[in-house]
Amino acid sequence: MRSSSTDARPAPAGATGAGTWVRLTVALLVAAAAAVTPAVGSTSAVLTDTDDVTTTVTTRTWATDGPTPPPTPTPGPGKTTE
């Protein structure tokens, strides 16, 4: 098998890259956070059976030329108007 001077060389035995240290640091930080969380305490919610809701309804009257005509009746299925 041929090799070239531009081929990646395998790391020597016992060498660790920067990625290994980053992963180790992140894993230790997550473990430390998990260990500290129970000591800090927990949060809870107070649930009640009442609530206060404020609702505002605003209406507007549109100007028209006259009174609105009554709706035209539409025939039901199978019926016709005479």
From TrEMBL:
It comes from the Bacteria. Residues 1-20, 38-82 are annotated as: Disordered. Residues 67-76 have a biased composition (Pro residues). Residues 10-20, 38-66 have a biased composition (Low complexity). This is Uncharacterized protein.
